[in-house]
Amino acid sequence: MSTKEKVLEEVKIDELLGNQNVIVLYNDDVNTFDHVIDTLVDVCGHDPIQAEQCAFIVHYKGKCDVKTGSFKELIPMCTGLLEAGLSAEIH
Predict the structure, then answer these.
(1) Is the dihedral angle over the CA atoms 49, 75, 19, 61 positive or is it negative?
(2) What is the pTM of this model?
(3) What CATH number is given to the structural domain containing 25?
């Protein structure tokens, strides 16, 4: 392994370890499945299947971790979810 490859691997590991925050989406009795799915696709970059799975987990379990990352990168996503009328917070 070259020095450059080793440095890139260390950076990736640091990024993974640094992504300790998570957006938790909570169930509500207001939003439709379609709205939740569309919002997760638009705001969090989920593919439709992933968004649908999260919507079902939220519905049946009451909450679901929908995105992990640094606090700084999660703030605009969480804000987008809240502005769309969903209940979410960063942990």
Answers:
(1) negative
(2) 0.79
(3) 3.30.1390.10
